[in-house]
Amino acid sequence: MLFGGTPFELNRIILIRILATLVLVTLFWLAARRARLVPGRSQNVAEMSLDFVRVNIAEEIIGKDTARRFVPLLTTIFFAVLAANITGVVPGLNIASSSLIGFPLVMAIIAFVAFIVVGIKAHGAVGYLRTTLFPSGVPWPVYIILTPIELISTFILRPATLTIRLLVNMVAGHLLLVLCFGATHFLFFEAAGALKAVGAVTLAAGFAFTLFEIFIAALQAYIFTLLTAVYISISQESH
């Protein structure tokens, strides 16, 4: 749409990401701008949503004593991923803005930086590397095998799996919806004879997969945030 062929190119999916961000910020701003001691309906929904992340992810995984300082980060990750995922079932948008690798990769880098910084703050740079790569209580010959595994697992596989899991789930959901509704269009308008009736089946499957995609959008936001909390918790603790 704008700046084609440059790093600042504005295409459809970037526009959807911007729109999802604006809607998300606006919804929370509207809920919070007139916050009351006795919450209204919109404030109540916002508070329940925030409490879900705080109680069921942050406090459950990291612990009540230390979770408070990570709640803003985890809340931002959860709702950003959810907003990016849910655009896949919004009429007129019809694609999850997390189904291209840029967004999942950036969110994974944020999670990666977060748990590395937490580990360094808790143990110091040398101490964090030592507890991560050389867990205590292990016979020294085992480190020959264990240390490379821990190195790859912690510093490569964690961000890679966060990225790939989110990306592939949303791409798969998008393709399922495209196949179902594309087949419905073909069967209703181009197929001959009795084949047209099969379009009702693909249409019903499309609606069923739409509901399933809504569930997957929320589930993937939960899993991404949960794993980020797990990695932060691991970084804080000694092995």
TrEMBL record:
Identification of the protein by name: ATP synthase subunit a
Residues passing through the membrane, by range: 12-32, 70-93, 99-120, 140-160, 166-189, 201-234
Main location: membrane
UniProt entry tagged with the keyword Membrane: yes
Localization (cell): Cell membrane; Membrane
Function in brief: Key component of the proton channel; it plays a direct role in the translocation of protons across the membrane.
Membrane topology of this protein: Multi-pass membrane protein
Pfam families associated with the record: ATP-synt_A
PANTHER family per the UniProt record, alphabetical: ATP SYNTHASE SUBUNIT A (PTHR11410)
Family indicated by similarity: Belongs to the ATPase A chain family.
InterPro entries associated with the record: ATP_synth_F0_asu (IPR000568), ATP_synth_F0_asu_bact/mt (IPR045083), F0_ATP_A_sf (IPR035908)
Claim: tRNA-binding is one of the keywords in the record: no
Record key words, sorted: ATP synthesis, Cell membrane, CF(0), Hydrogen ion transport, Ion transport, Membrane, Transmembrane, Transmembrane helix, Transport
